[in-house]
Design a protein that fits this description.
This protein has four helices and 16 strands. The chain has 287 residues and is of the alpha+beta class. It has two domains: 24-110, 2-Layer Sandwich (Pseudouridine synthase), CATH 3.30.2350; 113-273, Pseudouridine synthase. The strands form two sheets. Strands 1, 2, 3, 4, 5, 6, 10, 11, 12, 13, 14, 15 and 16 form a 13-stranded mixed beta sheet that branches. The protein has a three-stranded antiparallel beta sheet with strand order 8-7-9. The longest helix is centred in the N-terminal third of the chain and has 16 residues, at 2-17.
Length: 287
């Protein structure tokens, strides 16, 4: 049965990427709503917004489902406080007015907001805690395509900017009989493709990440990266989804064999009090 579900998911993915899915048939869950904000659980393989309205995107889907929330003066109908990659699922905050958008955007720029992600990565991450701080820039080799990013260590890197991702191991196990690790990640900065690039740089590419696996990881039905918890830093808003990468939800394709840490309502506790953090292969005291 698990293989049947896997192939059905793969077929759905192909259909979505061909752009033949009717956006009316895609459901987007609103997990939080106030007069100023909605926070949605974005499905994977959906654009946040795009100019090609024939392809499924969040602005079009929400506009059809909640027309009373649409701002007709905006090109993409809503104030998107931040964005998620096409391949990434999970929590995304949308402001319902300009004042709220400025307030939330300011909290993110000042790093008051905390954004946590859950991912399955290839291989067993040997350290339980990692700080990844390689600056990230654009890959000059890819003039066209999906604007692939890379770290400053690569000669092709242009316009590098500081980037900082913290990682905590949750579980080690196997995905489709190959070693894999479930990790919780905290974005300190917010560069394009930051988590995907940093994980690839340390040799633990996210499962299903076609772009950063050198176009080799094609068997999973999606990229296993999910925006798990958002502490907005505005109006006391803290929202969390369920873990989408459990053994049950992945139909037994993922089997954890070692439980290291447990993500809960207070994810930040996992990133403090660990004594030492591994940074670029050097141990330094944790501040």
């Amino acid at each position: 049965m698990s293989l049947i579900n896997y192939f059905m998911s793969l077929i759905n993915l192909i259909v979505i990427r061909l752009g033949v899915v009717d956006s009316d048939n895609i459901d987007v869950e609103i997990v939080y709503k106030s007069n100023d904000f909605i926070i949605v659980n974005k499905p994977e393989d959906i654009f946040t917004n795009n100019h090609n309205k024939a392809r499924p995107s969040l602005d079009v889907i929400l506009g059809k489902k909640y027309p009373h929330l649409v701002n007709s003066k905006l090109e993409h109908s809503f104030y998107f406080v931040h964005r998620l990659d096409f391949v990434t699922s999970g929590l995304l905050c949308i402001a319902l007015n300009k004042r709220a958008c400025a307030k939330a955007s300011g909290a993110m720029q000042k790093r008051i907001s905390q954004k946590y992600y859950i991912a399955l990565v290839r291989g067993h991450v040997s350290e339980d805690y990692l700080d990844m701080t390689n600056p990230i820039g654009y890959c000059a080799k890819e003039v066209d395509g999906n604007r692939k990013m890379c770290t400053v260590d690569e000669e092709c890197c242009t316009e590098p900017r500081d980037a900082h991702t913290r990682l905590v191991v949750l579980e080690r196990g196997v995905y489709m009989s190959y070693p894999a690790t479930k990790v919780l990640l905290l974005l300190v900065t917010g560069r394009r493709h930051q988590i995907r690039v940093h994980c690839s740089t340390i040799g633990h590419t996210i499962v299903g990440d076609y772009t950063y696996s050198g176009r080799k990881d094609t068997s999973p039905h999606r990229t296993f990266l999910h925006s798990y918890r958002l502490e907005l830093g505005v109006d006391g808003i803290n929202v969390q989804t369920n873990d989408p990468f459990t053994e049950a939800k992945l139909n037994g394709l993922w089997i954890p064999v070692e439980n290291v840490n447990k993500a809960g309502d207070d994810c930040f506790r996992l990133f403090i009090g660990t004594g030492l953090i591994k940074i670029q292969n050097k141990c330094i005291p944790k501040v």
